[in-house]
Write a structure and sequence with these properties.
Blueprint lengths: L1 E3 L42 H5 L8 H14 L2 H12 L8 H4 L2 H50 L7 H7 L29 H7 L2 H4 L4 H7 L2 E8 L4 E8 L9 E8 L11 E6 L12 E3 L11
Antiparallel strand pairs: 1-6, 2-3, 3-4, 4-5
Length: about 300
Amino acid sequence: MSEPIRNKKLDLPTAPTPQNTPANNAPISSHAQQPKVASIKEGSYSFDQLMRSHIHTFTLEDLDRAAAASIFAQNPKLVSMIQGKLGTLVGRSSGYIESLPAPVRRRVAGLKGVQKDHSKLEVQFQEEVLQLEKKYFAKFSPLYEKRAQIVNGLVEPSEEEVKAGEPEETDEEPSKTESVDDDKDSTSMTGIPEFWLSAMKNQVSLAELITDRDEAALKLLTDIRMEYLEKPGFRLIFEFAPNEFFTNKVVTKTYYYQEESGYGGDFIYDHAEGDKIEWRADRDLTVRVEAKKQRNKSMS
């Protein structure tokens, strides 16, 4: 009998998005920060959900943010409830401003006018930041391509790259446990095995989402990359080696932002669209098969 893997109830006190949240910035931001979801307690997520929860220049924090955004994409009723609650507060006065003397109320109105001018500049600022991020993303791309080639064993790093990446010399003697037999399985090993799985598991909040069942498929990740859309938004691309679990060679998820910027010029998350995973027969990692023993009928 097959049952979908059930997740723990999620505690979602805030509404993180790929770009703009009440507490954090997102991939396209004034400081180019990555998504944070430290305030969210997440349950055990299946591989399908993990693959539908993803990323910017795909650092590990990017994976973190996309996962948080996906949680809300899967809970539209919760998002609607939060928006409805906030909607009832918009425009409601506490009565404090009205209680102030007329000259003070006039000054407060003046400050609001100054703030509106500030907000207009913020919109321009965010637009220029986006263009700057795209400019440097184009410069980063060749480095990401070189990384993918080394990880997948297509090329070997140059002597200059190896030297630049070696740890600085210290007076301390290397630990015996750090020494590795260079000849051990070196002839049959190419690239860096399980690179992306190791990277994910080294990111604390993301590691909590990965189950033992997921690891078998995530070991087969060959590359993770991101691309910008023509309009505000981005697409995450996950490439896999041929495997026994699904037929997709590439799994993507695209995040879209609203046409209008939010308060302060931030881009506001609108919705996300992910690819359907084409699972092979009896290999769906989101389904657990449980064998139930039939009770022996008593003999009369």
